[in-house]
């Protein structure tokens, strides 16, 4: 019974599946076990996409979507990059400005949704197109043909290319496979997990997503909670955008353009409900790593980009269908008992 209860935990199943696929791809091609060219980039990209996934998770918790999550990441990176290049700010100062810019965009989005009562899908889709034009315009206007802010503040390369192997206590050093970029992702996971599991705010966000009318009747300020969820989403998207920029080594308009599908894959695979009311914070990281293992494994096997996208699309479709499949089997069992 204990084994059965453990296997009923979606996070355990996803972890086992991720490890099994990692071993499978490694046995197919030993290059997949290479620390410098596969494992390190895999964890670094996983860290960034996990934070982007958490940005999506925050709005999913109230039953909303954020289709502008990638553009919010781009704006945050743009603000940070401009502050480094034109104002000479430090790494931390520029990063704070970037995150605040993302939070502001989230606040504007949430305010529009609350005041207009227009579906979040429509509002965030419109925001996505508006920010796409704004980002392109600003980069072209201020940087010309380069379309990038290239100034690197002190400390940026540390987060970009260093690992725990570069941090030593005497003769003892950390594992070189663990990138420093994983540290901010872990902090975000802890903070978001704590908020949803231990605080009144987290419970109110989930209640708003579970049943909006019941939440209103119970005295929860639902409009404020919608605004709060979108602010958190924008701020986390901003952190993800900075991580993408630091990884790339420059600040460009293309940042965030490829994160839409991954932002849903991680949370949904991990157990977060699209309808709202339930989140899986740790599951977001596991789901993200599963998709990256699949992508990297197929890539090492020489599979093309189109096939990779098809595979990830099928994974998302399967994840969305799990609930209906479980209901169908439960229905069959009930009929068989009758």
From TrEMBL:
One of its GO terms (cellular component) is plasma membrane. GO terms for molecular function: transmembrane transporter activity. It is a multi-pass membrane protein. Its main location: membrane. It is found in: Cell membrane. InterPro entries: ABC_transp_permease. CDD domains: TM_PBP1_transp_AraH_like. The chain crosses the membrane at residues 12-32, 38-62, 93-114, 121-149, 169-196, 226-248, 268-294, 306-325. Keywords: Cell inner membrane, Cell membrane, Membrane, Transmembrane, Transmembrane helix, Transport. This is Ribose transport system permease protein. It comes from Candidatus Nanopelagicus limnae.
